[in-house]
Design goal:
heterodimer; A: mainly alpha; B: 630 residues; alpha/beta; Rossmann fold; 9-stranded mixed sheet; 27 helices; globular
């Protein structure tokens, strides 16, 4: 499973939307229940699952599920 | 991993079960999902499905209010999911940030309108007394002391105000000591340092809780220490006022559960343990006495640590039982003679050591101990046995342990079903009482008639109004008694204390002893006079004395005193539950007639004039003068 799939599954649990309806383009504009509380829940779920800590600046970048997956990918890759 | 199922499948399965209205299976699958994938995301799923199911499931409703000075929102879904695992449907009221003082002092606040069962007061020292925290270095020593005293006094006022407005249980977070005190290592050299003063406030909190009914301290400092320095997440604190890191939110939820489970009456009364590779390392039938690992040194020490944890539970009133697939003689020899054993035969209230099916053995243990199957917890190193019990006896609390014996003791100690918020003398002597019970059953079988047996028993009972000494036990019995309980109304200590003060209300407690030993305080009745009618609000007996005619003695006394107060009628509801069948015929057998039936239950009544109720001749009943004159 790709990181984006993982993110979609987590977002599905948290936002209460079927994973099939979520894509890389999904954002607070397209998902009604994606408010600031749920955004924090998504951040925490990602930190738990991937063992990461996200900085405020990084959390800012999580404007879509695709951008979120890209961010996680970049944090998981050891920088060369 | 190839063995791991796609998380979507398990969720789709649950939604399928819900769509087909297979409610019980859906709930079991939801619990299983939570167990396997505990975390923030799963909690969201569990809560949304719980909302669809909660009205159809036999869950214990519990209303929790949280007064707080920091962000707890992300903990709440995990708390609700965790509560579901213990059969509790948690409804949560959350105060706004730092409004706790207004909420507590204003009798009409949303806190009190919510009518909570319990309230958590979670305040950080920084928010309640910033002087003591961020500005400590600026304070003169006198001023620092003053600030600490002031804070403790505030807590005391809040508790007082709270008690005036509510009888709910109050759980106060103790204050956290600073990780980096303002004066560095110098701080540890004096009691008047920053840490010392916070400790002083915490000591005061414990005193305040001890002086009040239904007020408890949650040791937040110890909680943080247990989980280490990664408890905190400075980024989330600065960004979202969330002081706890993502991985530890679940531990905050579980700490709250250690209070909620006993308050909601979802505790276990007995723990059934396996032997091989659980109580000791290795297999007694193969490795023999000399081969099993059980000693003060590694690797046997891990098993001794578990045995110590079991003994601690036993002192708390939790019964221990053995369920093991073994040759009886091998196992008994090890239990009785192995020098490393800390738990011996006398510490077990029941034993099933044979090659039979464990679920059948566990059913028999519940019967022998006369407690419900849902009052049992099960500890076994073998995942197959655990799954078997989960599948065949879903009411049993199965403790999940991994493959590492060094974690067994902690798994038992962390389990909230063994928490008790008060300890009575009855709790601490429970195992001995069960040994006496076995002697009673043996004696009973020798007599031709019940009456002969009762006479032989020489029962003696003390009937007293509730006192400060017995309040905790009386409340505990209302919370725990499921079988012989006509209304199953659960009351907290403050509620009982309040009732005892109200005119027209009478609370009776009964202590029973016989030739084999002392049962302790085992029965409670609460009545309320209304005009010429006396209504039995609560009538319950601990399962230890069911069928010994103690109930007749208690009822006869209630009838007699009601008549003396001028009442004409004695009435009482029987409200059926899944478990109180033993009390179903209670009123009918004692000459009451049914006067009303509705969805909740049946109302029974008796004219006191025509009552022929009498204390059975084989029970000596001691009644204090004051009980008659109230």
């Amino acid at each position: 499973m790709s990181v984006l799939d993982d993110v979609r599954n987590m977002a599905s649990d948290i936002f209460g939307v079927p994973a099939a309806k979520l894509t890389g383009e999904s954002s607070p504009e397209t998902v009604e229940s994606w408010d600031s509380v749920q955004h924090l829940n998504l951040v925490l779920a990602i930190e738990e699952k991937f063992g990461l800590q996200l900085d405020p600046e990084e959390i800012e970048q999580m404007k879509t599920l695709g951008a979120t997956a890209t961010l996680i990918d970049s944090k998981l890759q050891p920088s060369s | 991993m190839s063995t791991e199922r796609n998380p979507g499948n398990r969720r789709a399965e649950i939604d399928g079960l819900i769509a087909e209205s297979k409610i019980d299976r859906a709930a079991a699958a939801l619990r299983e999902l939570w167990r396997r994938e505990t975390g923030s995301a799963t909690a969201g799923f569990v809560c949304s499905r719980l909302d669809q199911l909660r009205d159809k499931l036999p869950l214990t409703r519990f209303k929790l209010a949280i007064l707080r000075s920091f962000t707890v929102e992300p903990i709440l879904p995990q708390l609700r999911a965790e509560a579901l695992a213990y059969g509790i449907d948690l409804e949560i009221h959350l105060s706004d940030f730092n409004t706790y003082v207004q909420e507590i002092v204003d009798a009409g606040s949303s806190l009190y309108r919510f009518a909570p069962n319990a309230v958590v007061l979670a305040v950080r020292a920084e928010d309640a007394a910033s002087d003591l925290c961020s500005r400590f270095a600026d304070l003169a020593p006198d001023a620092a002391h003053e600030a600490a005293n002031c804070l403790a006094a505030s807590f005391e006022q809040w508790v007082k105000a709270f008690r005036q407005n509510s009888q709910a249980t109050l759980i106060i977070h103790s204050l956290e000591r600073p990780a980096n005190p303002a004066f560095g290592v110098l701080d540890s050299q004096t009691e008047s340092g920053q840490s010392g003063l916070i400790r002083q406030v915490n000591r005061e909190l414990r005193r305040i809780a001890g002086d009040s009914r239904g007020v408890y301290v949650l040791d937040y400092d110890a909680l943080v220490a247990r989980h280490g320095s990664h408890w905190h997440d400075e980024r989330k604190w600065l960004m979202a006022r969330l002081p706890i890191s993502a991985e530890h939110l679940i531990h905050m939820a579980r700490e709250w559960m250690r209070f909620i489970v006993p308050l909601a009456g979802r505790t276990c009364k007995a723990l059934v343990v396996d032997l091989d590779n659980t109580l000791w390392g290795g297999i007694i039938g193969e490795d023999g006495m000399a081969g099993i690992k059980l000693s003060a040194e590694y690797p046997g020490a891990a098993f001794q640590a578990l045995q110590r944890a079991l003994l601690d539970l036993s002192r708390r009133g939790v019964l221990l039982a053995v369920c093991s697939k073994n040759n009886l003689d091998d196992a008994i020899e090890a239990i009785e003679k192995h020098p490393g054993m800390l738990v011996r035969s006398k510490d077990f209230a029941a034993m099933r050591i044979n090659w039979g099916d464990k679920s059948q053995n566990i059913r028999e243990i519940a019967q022998e101990l006369n407690i419900g199957i849902d009052s049992l917890a099960f500890l076994d190193d073998n995942p197959f046995e655990r799954e078997q019990i989960r599948a065949t006896l879903p009411e049993v609390t199965v403790i999940d342990i991994g493959a590492n014996p060094m974690e067994y003791a902690a798994a038992v100690r962390d389990c909230p079903v063994f928490e008790r918020l008060s300890l009575s003398a009855e709790d601490q002597q429970r195992t001995a009482m069960y040994a006496e019970q076995r002697q009673r059953s043996d004696a009973e079988n020798k007599f031709q008639s019940k009456e002969d047996f009762f006479r032989y028993l020489e029962q003696e009972a003390d009937l007293d109004p509730v006192t400060d000494m017995t309040l905790a036990r009386v409340a505990q019995l209302t919370q725990k008694t499921n079988q012989f309980n006509v209304t199953t109304r659960r009351y907290s200590e403050p509620q009982i204390a309040e009732m005892a003060k109200k005119p027209g209300w009478n609370i009776f407690s009964i202590k029973v002893r016989d030739r084999f030993g002392d049962h302790g305080l085992v029965g409670v009745a609460i009545t309320r006079d209304e005009g010429e009618q006396c209504e039995i609000d609560t009538f319950l007996l601990s399962c230890r004395v069911i069928g010994r005619t103690v109930e007749t003695a208690l009822l006869a006394h209630i009838a007699k005193t009601a008549a003396e107060r001028g009442c004409q009628r004695l009435v009482g509801w029987f409200l059926p539950t899944k478990k109180n069948a033993p009390a179903r015929d209670f009123y009918e057998q004692h000459g009451f007639s049914r006067t009303e039936t509705n969805d909740a239950g049946t109302l029974w009544a008796m004219e006191l004039r025509t009552s022929r109720l009498a204390v059975p001749e084989w029970i000596k009943l001691n009644v204090p003068e004051t009980a008659n004159t109230r």
